[in-house]
Amino acid sequence: MPTPATQSPGHARLARRSLEVITTEQAPSGAYPACPDYEVYRYSWFRDGSFIAEAASRGGAVDSADAFHRWCANVVTDRADRIGRIVAARAAGEQPAEADLLPTRYTLEGADTGDVGWWDFQTDGYGTWLWALTEHLRRHGSDPAPYREAVRLTVGYLAATWDLPCYDWWEEYREHRHGATLGAIRGGLAAIHAAGLDDTGLCERTVTRIDTLVRDDGLYDGGLAKWLGGDTVDASLLACLTPFASVDPAGPIARATLAAIERDLVEPEGGVHRYPQDVFYGGGQWPVLAGLLGWHYARVGRVDDARRELDWIASQAADGLLPEQAPGVRLLAPEHLARWEERWGPNATPLLWSHAMYLILAHELGVLV
Ligand code: BGC
To answer: Under CATH, to which class is 9-364 assigned?
Structure first.
């Protein structure tokens, strides 16, 4: 049962507002823009969008989540030829052509952005999409048939690309293979397998290969590393614990990962930094990560800690809108703030993904029923 503290009118109001922001900003195509008021975020990312759809699905905006998932399925099936070329190249032991690799973000109409400058090759979003789709179909008892072809193509794409270095969740460090990326891919493939949507065994085989690689190369000090062979942590690794459960969320690897994140990235009053060397907008605290941390706390029974993160996210809202990051009590690299503000203006608000993670955590804690 939700406690009175989590049912406070403030949280109920912000939860309603969050759902309204998500559904109002959704494009007629079904795509969610990352942020409507921030020039370079007027596009739809599979990563952001999948979590946004999860929030809509939990919050009762079933049509909104349906529309996003249909949009994703169309984006993928429209690129069947490209995916075929990638799979063939990898099967022949070759590197796929750079121009064939799927981007991380699309126009709201589902076209490639045509940008040469974006940090496009990121595979995690496609895994996150498979996970969010299966959650949504299960939650609402929906028929998976319209998604079969898109799922088949996405599984093939991920099975062909999962072990290639690519940009991480933060669109950085293309030369590495990232723990959080592998966790998202594993989460998606495992979800498709568990839902009985893969009759080829490809999901299961790829999951086993990911687990072997992470066990051999992806750990340091007993926890997950930011990238294979690395010796630092990143808060995006929280997703490997909850929701993807790519390691046992209550087991020793999860505990060591969480302890490193709490030691290096969590502020005592709430709020979470991305990684120790972050300089983007000075390296503030991200509501998205506070939501992820709270979600994990809620799953492992640390309800008071989860509520602290929910309260902290709510305290960052101005006029009911949540930013991408809040300077909060501490910037990791304050000397870098001005240069980002000069380049792109104040940090992105409202960030739909921030609203989504707030909603998901509110749902976990019983604020949304
Ligand atoms: C973040 C990405 C996010 C994108 C759109 C970037 O600054 O690093 O994780 O997908 O913004 O919100």
So the answer is: mainly alpha
What the block records as the tokens of 3 is 């406690």
How many other CB atoms are found less than 10 A from the CB of residue 60? 13
Read off the pLDDT of residues 299-342 as tens digits, 9 standing for 90 and up. 999 999 999 999 999 999 999 999 999 977 799 999 999 999 99
Q: How many CB atoms lie within 10 A of CB 21?
A: 22
Q: How many CA atoms does the CB half-sphere of 10 hold within 13 Å?
A: 13
Torsion angles phi and psi, residue 81, rounded to 5? -65, -45
- Region of residue 328 (left: phi > 0; alpha: psi -120 to 50; beta: else): left
Phi, psi of 148 (to 5 degrees): -55, -45
- Reading the block at residue 124, the tokens are 């995690």
Write down the pTM of the prediction: 0.97
What is the spatial distance between Cα 274 and Cα 256, in angstroms, rounded to a whole number? Answer: 17
Q: Which amino acid is at 150?
A: A
Q: Which residue's alpha carbon is at the smallest distance from atom 7 of ligand 1?
A: 170
Residue 236 DSSP code: G
Q: Whose CA is nearest to atom 5 of ligand 1?
A: 34
Give the residue extent of every domain in the chain: 9-364
Q: Report whether 59 contacts 15 (CB < 8 A).
A: yes
**Residue 170, ligand 1, Cβ within 6 A:** yes
The string of DSSP letters for 149-189 reads: HHHHHHHHHHHHHTTS----TTS--TTS-BHHHHHHHHHHH
Q: Residue 71 has which token pair?
A: 């949009």
- Ligand 1 atom nearest to CA at 41: 5
